[in-house]
Amino acid sequence: MPEEGVPLSPNRELLTTPEIVMLSSIFVSQGVNKIRLTGGEPTVRRDILSLMRQIGALRPRGLKQLCITTNGISLHRKLDSMVEAGLTGVNLSLDTLDPWQFQIMTRRKGFDAVQKSIERILEMNKVGAGIKLKINCVVMRGVNDREVLPFVELTREKDLEVRFIEYMPFDGNKWNKGKMFSYDEMLDLIRGQFPGLAKVKDDKNDTSKTWHIPGFVGRIGFITSMTHNFCGTCNRLRITGDGNLKVCLFGNAEVSLRDILRKSNRGEPIDEEAYEAMKQIEMDRKQGRVPPDQPLGVAPNEAELLDVIGIAVKGKKAKHAGLGTLEHMKNRPMILIGG
Fold first, then answer.
1. Which of 32, 77, 208, 215 is buried most, with the most CB atoms less than 10 Å from its CB?
2. Where is the Radical SAM core domain (predicted)?
3. For the chain, domain boundaries
4. Measured between alpha carbons, how far apart are the two ends of the chain, in Å?
């Protein structure tokens, strides 16, 4: 967190809960089976449980996984209800295991709360909750690279995956190539302590390279965007908080899905009342009670959305521009992309 804080996006520009649900429904209808809610910080959203329940209701239509990425500070207070709402996976961002360093890096207290969230997930999994827990650690030279081995030790007795992420250039994160601690360096460091480190077969579209130490309960992974990119097999799409589609995390090309959605509501944000009215109009249209050119409704802009999404996906490049270009390219700060 920058010392000066971060500018907040105007509420009107952000997707409403009905808009998120509508987009989720459209993507699931096209074969997307995993949805992840990120941020910012999703656990501080007032209606996060309602949102998760509505997205979780898409399971009969093909949704298989509903996940969140969180800092973990308030997660333990909402975790049980989130699992009831359909939560299947948690990516917990944690860059240090030192409480004092945590306070310096995040500019807040909360280390104990994060540990409580981790332990609560592990407790729930012992009785069958089935929550996939991954701890994401961005490794920075001279900042927390000395903690790589302590993070690996977490997997000795805990059923979780620690994922080490190469430091990446985004607006506002004071990028410096010298701070990047590479995948190969991390592997060498870990092998020096654990020579039995073995590669695990990754699924076709995994973005993480997974390894395991014999005798350890958990696993470790590496997200190697900078030195060993995985663009050719990446099938992720991102919707920003203000409704823009990004087909590549490192690309600055975006297209607004929010604006297309809101055509169905005369350009206004779609709240719960408007959403219910639109669903009723669509039901009436299907039953022939309103003319097909009725200006409001859920379906009229779906075809346009699918066309725009299809064009964006087909235009996705085979690989990102490379480190030399990315460090000079204008892109949103990660907090405005969703990580």
1. 208
2. 1-197
3. 17-252+317-327, 260-315
4. 14
